[in-house]
TrEMBL record:
A Pfam family the protein falls into: AzlD
Transmembrane segments: 20-40, 60-81, 93-122
Identification of the protein by name: AzlD domain-containing protein
Record bears the keyword Membrane: yes
C-alpha cells in the first residue's frame, strides 16, 4: 500500500499517455470528492438527537428548492435575465400537469415522469 502512494505522482505523470489509467484516476478522485460531503453529515448527525422543529422545517426544503429551480427556468430568460410571463408556454402547461399529478399521487417519481412526458408532448404540439 505504501508503494502505491509513493508511486502516485509517477502514475499521474504517465497517465496522459495511458488514457484508461487517467480516467480511472479521475473517477476515483471524483468518487472520493462526492463521498466525503455525504458521509460526514451522516457521521456527525447519527450520534445526535435532532430537534423535532428542525425535522418539521427540513421537510419543506426539497419542495422549495425544486420550486425555485422550476420557476427560474420557466419564467426567467437567459437573454437579458428578465421576467417573461409567457415565454415558455409548453413548460408552464407541463408545470400545471406536474402539480396535478403531484397532488393526486404524492409521488416525486410520478411527478417527474409526468412532467417530462408533458413537456415532450407539448413541445411537439406547440
Amino acid at each position: 500500500m505504501e508503494q502505491l502512494f509513493t508511486n502516485m505522482p509517477v502514475l499521474i505523470a504517465h497517465a496522459g499517455q495511458n488514457k484508461i489509467l487517467y480516467h480511472l484516476i479521475v473517477i476515483v478522485i471524483a468518487a472520493v470528492a462526492a463521498f466525503i460531503p455525504r458521509y460526514f453529515p451522516v457521521l456527525f448527525f447519527s450520534t445526535r438527537k435532532i430537534p423535532e422543529w428542525f425535522n418539521e422545517w427540513m421537510k419543506y426544503v426539497p419542495v422549495s428548492l425544486f420550486t425555485a429551480l422550476v420557476v427560474k427556468n420557466v419564467f426567467i430568460t437567459t437573454a437579458g435575465y428578465r421576467f417573461v410571463p409567457f415565454g415558455h408556454v409548453e413548460q408552464i402547461l407541463a408545470a400545471v400537469v406536474v402539480m396535478i399529478v403531484a397532488y393526486f399521487t404524492r409521488s416525486m417519481a410520478m411527478s417527474v415522469i409526468g412532467g417530462l412526458v408533458a413537456v415532450w408532448l407539448l413541445s411537439m404540439v406547440i
